[in-house]
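Running this now, will post back.
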Amino acid sequence: MSIPFPPMKRPLVAILRGVKPEETEAIVGVLIEAGMTAIEIPLNSPDPFRSIATAVKQAPPDVLIGAGTVLATADVDRLNDVGGRLMVSPNVDTQVLVRAHQYAMVTLPGVFSPTEALLAARSGASGLKFFPASVLGASGIAAIRAVLPSGVMIAAVGGVSDQNFAEYIKGGVTAFGLGSSLYKPGMSAADVAARAKATITAYDRAIQKD
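Update: finished.
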C-alpha cells in the first residue's frame, strides 16, 4: 500500500544539492517563507543528514522534508532517524521503496521508461519522478503517462524551471523538482528567496492558464 503524496497548494520540491549544514537553516527558512512545501537535500551533499535534521526541526508539519539520491536501505534508516518524511531516488529499487514504506515515507523514485514507471507504480511509489525530464520532454512524458494507472502522480525533474512549467503541465505533469534553477552551491539566502518567489509566481501563472 503506497503512502500518497500529500495535498499541496503548490507541488514543488526544492532540491538543495550541495547545501552545507551551516547554510541550511537560512536557506530552508526563506524557501518556507516563500511558500515552498517540499524540500529535498540530496545525499551527495556535504553532511546531508545533519542538514536534513536542521530542516526538519524548523519546518512546520505541512512542509515535507527529506532526502534525494537515496540508493540504499541503510540511507532510508538514517533518514528516518533524523525525521525525514520524503524519500527521493534516481532509480527504482524495490528494496529501498519497501523500507521507506515501512516508515510511512512519501516516495518519489526516478523513472525514464514505461518499464521503470510501471514497476515503480506496482511497487507502491507515492509518485513517479521522470528524470531527466528535459531529455524526454513534455511530449515523451505524456506518451508514457498514457499507459500508466490513472491517478498516478507524475513529477518532472531535470531541466524544468519557471520557464517551462506550462508545457509540462499540459503533458499531465502535476509536480516539479527544482534544482539548479532554484539553488546552486554558494548562493546566498537572499538569492534563493528571489528565485523561489519568481518560481512560485511562474507556477501560479501556468496553473491559471491551464
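The domain at 12-209 is CATH 3.20.20.70 (TIM Barrel). More later if anyone needs it.
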